[in-house]
Amino acid sequence: MLELRQLCKAYANGRQVLSDLSFTLPPGEFVAVMGDSGVGKSTLLNLIAGLDTPDSGAVLIDGVAMSALDDDAATRLRREKFGFIFQAFHILPHLTLLQNVALPLLLNQLPTDRAAHMLKAVGLAGREADFPRQLSGGELQRVAIARALVHRPSLLLADEPTGNLDPDTAHGVLQLLRAEIKANGSSAIMVTHSQAAAASADRILILTRDGLFPAKA
Ligand SMILES: Nc1ncnc2c1ncn2[C@@H]1O[C@H](COP(=O)(O)OP(=O)(O)OP(=O)(O)O)[C@@H](O)[C@H]1O
Ligand SMILES: [Mg+2]
User: Among 38, 77, 153, 154, which is most buried by a count of CB atoms within 10 Å?
Assistant: First the structure.
């Protein structure tokens, strides 16, 4: 379970992005987070992912504050339990697509068979040996999605996962995301500007300067 306790974050230029943000994500729940550009959605995901640290407040995973873990323990927890899809995909240029997708399995000492299965599931069967530079933006995004799901993470963090996809491909990817999340009993936070994408979540929340609120029906 993920719990955010009174998170505050300002950047060096003095801009307060998050103030006193509290939120609990129950196991197995898939939420979409919407909100204006610049409001702090990516900042929020980065804080949860441990890529950035809050000024005050805490991110708790299964009751344990991330800040209480040493670097090794935090890395291990992220590697085992988290799946990430970022706005910039962080696909490694010198690895093939299959190697990129297999990476979370290798790092967790799991069998790597599922990597090819996931590439196929995102419509990239036959491209296993290609390198990232040979792919379009939308194809790269699908590689990132396959890699984020391959090790069945208990928490998926996705920043605009369908931002570069045409509506049909986006629809297919969202169905896959939802199916994987539900099959694995994972929880997920998906940031999106797309109403259609948000509709695939269990619940839609809006991030404003005042906090996270349920979307009006
Ligand atoms: N490293 C940084 N240094 C300074 N300011 C930053 C930094 N990263 C983000 N910001 C500022 O913090 C605010 C929130 O940024 P963030 O990327 O979280 O927005 P967002 O809600 O994800 O927007 P978008 O929908 O455009 O992706 C913005 O005003 C941005 O300019
Ligand atoms: Mg963003």
Answer: 153
What CATH topology corresponds to 2-214? Rossmann fold (3.40.50)
Ligand at minimal distance from the CA of 44 is 1
Could you tell me if 96 and 160 are in contact, meaning their C-beta atoms sit under 8 angstroms apart? no
Q: What is the pTM of this model?
A: 0.94
What ranges do the domains of the chain cover? 2-214
Nearest-CA residue for atom 30 of ligand 1: 38
Residue to mutate, 17, 46, 208, ligand 1, most ligand atoms under 8 Å from C-beta: 17
Rounded (10°) CA dihedral 166, 167, 168, 169: 50
